[in-house]
Structure formats: C-alpha cells, structure tokens
C-alpha cells in the first residue's frame, strides 16, 4: 500500500490560524501587534524569496512583519548595531537573521547578539542550552528552532502524541539549524536517537533500522527506497532545486519520494511538507516571544 502523504501545507494553515486568533487577542489587549523583523544580507534570489514569504505569512496572521534588506558589503559591526537597535525596540518581539550570512561576516557573533527573548530562530547559545537541558517537557516560553519543531509537530500529528516513545529515530545531518536540535527534540519525545553525517559508515544499513527517518542533508533524492524500513515514517527536510529537461527547475527533497512512498507508512512531500510548517512555527515563536515580553515588563507598548 502506498504511504500516507503528510500534508504540511494543511497543518501549517491550522497552526497559522491558531496564531492569528491569539495574535488578535494580544493586539487588542496591548494596543500593539506582535512584531517580527527579518534581516537579510546580500541578494541571493532564493533567500530573498523565502524571507518575502515569511513577512507575507506574518501579515496574514496579524503579525507586524518588516523585512530589513542589507547590502552584501555590510560589515559585521553594522549588522550588530542594527540588531542592538531592534533589541531595544519595544515594538520588535522577534528577530530573525536569514542564514547563511556572507562569508566575510561573523555569524556566531551575530547570533549571540540577538536578545535571547527575541531569538525566534532559537539559535542563541542560551536557547540552545535550554533546549538541550530540557527534559520531556519544554519550558513554555522556550524559543525552539522552527524546522525541527515543525518536524516534531508533523511526527506527533502522524503517530499520535505518545506514538514516538521507544521508536528508533535516525536523523541524517548534524547542523545547528536542523540536525542537532532535531535530535534533542526526539530525545525529549522518548525516541532512541542516532545522528548520522557525512562520516557515518554504511548509512543505508543504519537507515533501514529507523522507525522514524529524518533527512536533513541538502542532497537531492540521496535517500533511496531500499534504505527505508517498511512502515517507517519519513520526514524529508531537504530543499533542493534541480534542473528539469525543459530548461526549468523544480524542488525535490533529500529522499527519492517515488521510491519511498512504496515502502514507508507515511512521508512528507517536497514542496508542501516541512517548509510551510517551518514558517508557521516562526510566527508561533514570534507570538510566544511577544507574550513572554509582556510577562517580563507588564506592557510591550512604546512609551
Ligand atoms: N524545510 C525547511 O524548512 C528547511 C530546509 N532546509 C534544507 O535542509 C537541508 C539541510 O540543511 P542544513 O542542515 O542547513 O544543511 P548543512 O549543509 O548545514 O548540513 C548538512 C548535513 O548533512 C550531512 N551530509 C552531507 N552529505 C552527506 C552524506 N553524503 N551522507 C551523510 N550525511 C551527509 C553533513 O555532514 P557533515 O556534518 O559531516 O558535513 C551535515 O551534517 C538542505 O537541503 C536545506 O535546504 C534547511 C532548513 C530549513
Ligand atoms: N535564520 C534562518 N532561519 C531559517 O529558518 C532558515 C534560514 N535562516 N535559512 C534558510 C533555511 C531554509 N528555510 C526554509 C523555510 C521554508 C521553506 C518553504 O516554505 N518551502 C516551501 C517551498 C518554497 C518554494 O517553492 O521555493 C515548501 O517546502 O513547500 C523552505 C526553506 C528556512 N531557513
Ligand atoms: Mg562566516
């Protein structure tokens, strides 16, 4: 039987609707909408397209999104001073700096400079540390990295809230954006977790032992159908643009979808899987950050 296709687009729409309701209540109560600032440095067309999607989705959910576009030639110091101003701005509840930054910039210093309470990507070392030291339940004000949170959400939707316990989860990829925080979340969900990477020996054999397989590699359709355990749940994080015969291009994941669908119990498509849920989580994190800021200061309103 063909696998169930996990509908990330529909799940993202549900998440955004919930954010929209709460954002409206926040705005009524505080006279100020939750505010998100997305900073992009340089003019990579794919990155620009992503961030425009983020700010458009924000507006639809009642979040005041603003895109800050800086030239490729900006310096780390210039970006840091921009971040400091946003840290001090009471109308800014969430700050996201689109990665990767140009090679001449110090990305680590930039991520450290973002107020951890406004760090809607969850990449600040304080938030990373809080995630890795959390147990089975996450602190409710914790800003969790959006992509792995989205993957966990889709897994819970597919397997049920207790359906992950005891599963062997294999995560391919160990980046700070996806692989490592994904492993932390799966551990917290009582999975037995293996993290694979480019030096892992016999990756196909390891994958065949996975009840849950998360692919976050960045290599088009690398994971083949015969790497997948029959009945496994497959989460494909990869976003790869490949050329088509007619001179155009299309998006594919890190998993050979047509093969995997014959073996897996359930699988996320690309596009329409993890990507949209990632963006919904960003809006959710902005709302969480805004709500937490009012608990700290009593009021987020400018004075
Ligand atoms: N849908 C979404 O919302 C998002 C999608 N993405 C996509 O997910 C993918 C991964 O992103 P990201 O984590 O940032 O990428 P990185 O390039 O930072 O990390 C890739 C990881 O894959 C591992 N890897 C590379 N080649 C192999 C191989 N042949 N065998 C096993 N492991 C390998 C690397 O291993 P090593 O550490 O040894 O180098 C590394 O750990 C990309 O396609 C990206 O576009 C990313 C973020 C969000
Ligand atoms: N600081 C930072 N935070 C990020 O979260 C971050 C980042 N930098 N840099 C780049 C990656 C990538 N990423 C995606 C988000 C949504 C889609 C998405 O919505 N994809 C649609 C398709 C989009 C299209 O058609 O091009 C889908 O999969 O259906 C994709 C990729 C977030 N990232
Ligand atoms: Mg750098």
From TrEMBL:
Keyword Lyase: no
InterPro entries recorded: Aminoacid_DH-like_N_sf, NAD(P)-bd_dom_sf, THF_DH/CycHdrlase, THF_DH/CycHdrlase_cat_dom, THF_DH/CycHdrlase_CS, THF_DH/CycHdrlase_NAD-bd_dom
Single annotated GO MF: methylenetetrahydrofolate dehydrogenase (NADP+) activity
Annotated ranges, domain Tetrahydrofolate dehydrogenase/cyclohydrolase NAD(P)-binding: 145-292
Assembly mode: Homodimer.
HAMAP family: THF_DHG_CYH
Protein name: Bifunctional protein FolD
Source organism (scientific name): Benzoatithermus flavus
């Amino acid at each position: 039987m063909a696998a169930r296709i996990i509908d990330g687009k529909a799940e993202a729409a549900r998440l955004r609707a919930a954010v929209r309701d709460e954002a409206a209540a926040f705005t009524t109560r505080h006279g100020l909408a939750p505010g998100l600032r997305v900073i992009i440095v340089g003019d990579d067309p794919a990155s620009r397209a992503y961030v425009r999607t983020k700010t458009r989705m924000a507006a639809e959910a009642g979040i005041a999104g603003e895109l800050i576009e800086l030239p490729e030639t900006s310096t780390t110091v210039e970006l840091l001073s921009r971040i400091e101003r946003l840290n001090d701005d009471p109308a800014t509840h969430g700050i996201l700096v689109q990665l990767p930054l140009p090679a001449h910039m110090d990305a680590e210093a930039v991520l450290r400079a973002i107020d951890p309470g406004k760090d809607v990507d969850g990449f600040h070392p304080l938030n990373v540390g809080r995630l890795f030291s959390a147990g089975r339940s996450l602190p409710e004000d914790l800003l969790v990295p959006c992509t792995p949170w989205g993957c966990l959400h889709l897994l819970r939707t597919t397997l049920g809230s207790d359906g992950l316990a005891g599963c062997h989860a294999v995560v391919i990829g160990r980046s700070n954006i996806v692989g490592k925080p994904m492993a932390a979340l799966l551990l917290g969900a009582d999975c037995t977790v293996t993290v694979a990477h480019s030096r892992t020996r016999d990756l196909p054999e390891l994958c065949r032992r996975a009840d849950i397989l998360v692919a976050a590699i960045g290599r088009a359709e690398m994971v083949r159908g015969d790497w997948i355990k029959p009945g496994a749940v497959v989460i494909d994080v990869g976003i790869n643009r490949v050329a088509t015969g007619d001179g155009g291009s299309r998006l594919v994941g890190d998993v050979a979808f047509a093969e995997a669908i014959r073996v897996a119990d359930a699988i996320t498509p690309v596009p329409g899987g993890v990507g949209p849920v990632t963006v919904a989580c960003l809006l959710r994190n902005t709302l969480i950050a805004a709500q937490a800021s009012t608990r700290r200061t009593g009021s987020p309103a400018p004075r």
